[in-house]
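hey
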């Protein structure tokens, strides 16, 4: 928190200590948390904006274009961040009412704060990350499948700071949207490595999400590399379907769309509302469908598939269930949305050099007519 609000923090703590009812205290604390995150983000953005102004001449001389931080958090990215905060808070309310351990609430809260901080840090650079980043993330995913933690025949996790994280939920949205921006052969290599990693793990939910993202991109931009990427991801998804998934449902993590209502109407409604919020930021883009919107629509397809996997199988329910990996993945993936002031035509031109050799195929040739 900014130093000028130190007294506000002390007053909040004193007020919290004075509330006797546990649920009332939790509601007050969550409300204060939302205000605290907003103030902290505003203060940090203001600091970065002032720093960017001081170094603007130096950046221009070096040929580096730094996006305006205030603009970046006032447009589509702000909607994604707000939906992430609201969905996570609804998930915290569900877990509190359902009797989840307090540690679960703290882990999700910490993941949200870390994710927002990382997104703000990464947004200082050009938002259109290259295909090399996509390939590097995919190699990390393959390393998880090779050296990660195995449970019941599946190797999907790594341990960090005493917590088990699922890297696929963190990097998969970035891999899919990164390829949507840079559809060259290097980006295709990243998708191929990611598909291989998900098939090896095996991760049926992640493989289905990658296939859904590539299917959406193939309908929008049926180029050679995109069609190949869709074929590879569909093959990986098919490979995971051939293997029996014996992972049991974990409390407050898997299949909570059904179990939440056993705790009451309010927890169940909180879960459904939180999952709906995850797809709200895509709605304006889906309505206009202009050139350069492919990464945003792929983002929507990936998270729709992850939600479907959580409903149909024993897979983590993103943001509203316990687990920091999906929270980190969703918040960091807001970089898929262009900042305010960057038009979709500029976004499309940013990746034109990498995509110049990738020709659009006739829709009849790929069965998309």
């Amino acid at each position: 928190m900014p130093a000028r609000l130190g007294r506000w923090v002390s007053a909040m703590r004193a007020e919290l200590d004075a509330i006797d009812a546990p649920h009332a205290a939790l509601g007050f604390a969550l409300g204060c948390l939302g205000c605290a995150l907003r103030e902290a983000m505003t203060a940090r953005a203001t600091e970065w904006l002032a720093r960017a102004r001081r170094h603007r001449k130096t950046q221009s001389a070096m040929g580096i274009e730094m996006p305006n931080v205030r603009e970046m958090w006032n447009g589509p990215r702000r909607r994604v961040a707000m939906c992430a905060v609201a969905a996570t808070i609804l998930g915290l309310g569900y877990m509190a009412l359902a009797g989840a351990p307090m540690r679960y609430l703290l882990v999700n809260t910490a993941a949200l704060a870390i994710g927002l901080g990382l997104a703000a840090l990464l947004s200082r650079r050009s938002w259109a990350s290259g295909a090399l980043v996509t390939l590097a993330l995919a190699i990390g995913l393959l390393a998880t499948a090779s050296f990660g933690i195995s449970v019941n025949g599946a190797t999907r996790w790594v341990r960090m700071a005493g917590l088990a994280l699922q890297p696929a939920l963190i990097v998969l949205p970035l891999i899919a949207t990164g390829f949507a921006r840079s559809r060259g052969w290097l980006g295709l290599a990243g998708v191929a490595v990611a598909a291989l990693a998900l098939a090896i793990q095996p991760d049926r939910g992640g493989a289905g999400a990658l296939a859904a993202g590539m299917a959406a991109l193939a309908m929008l931009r049926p180029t050679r590399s995109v069609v190949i990427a869709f074929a590879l991801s569909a093959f990986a998804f098919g490979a995971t379907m051939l293997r029996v998934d014996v992972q049991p449902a974990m409390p407050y993590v898997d299949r909570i769309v059904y179990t939440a209502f056993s705790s009451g109407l309010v927890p169940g409604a909180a879960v459904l509302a939180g999952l709906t919020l995850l797809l709200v930021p895509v709605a304006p883009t889906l309505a206009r469908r202009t050139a350069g919107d492919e990464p945003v629509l792929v983002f929507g397809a990936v998270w729709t598939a992850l939600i479907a996997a959580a409903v149909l199988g024993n897979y983590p329910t993103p943001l509203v269930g316990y687990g920091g990996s999906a929270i980190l993945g969703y918040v960091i993936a807001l970089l898929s949305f262009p900042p305010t002031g960057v038009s979709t035509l500029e976004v499309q031109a940013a990746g034109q050099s990498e995509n110049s050799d990738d020709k659009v195929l006739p829709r009849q040739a790929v069965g998309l007519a």
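Confidence is low (pLDDT under 50) at residues 64-73, 341-347, 363-369. The CA atoms of residues 298 and 354 lie 19 Å apart.
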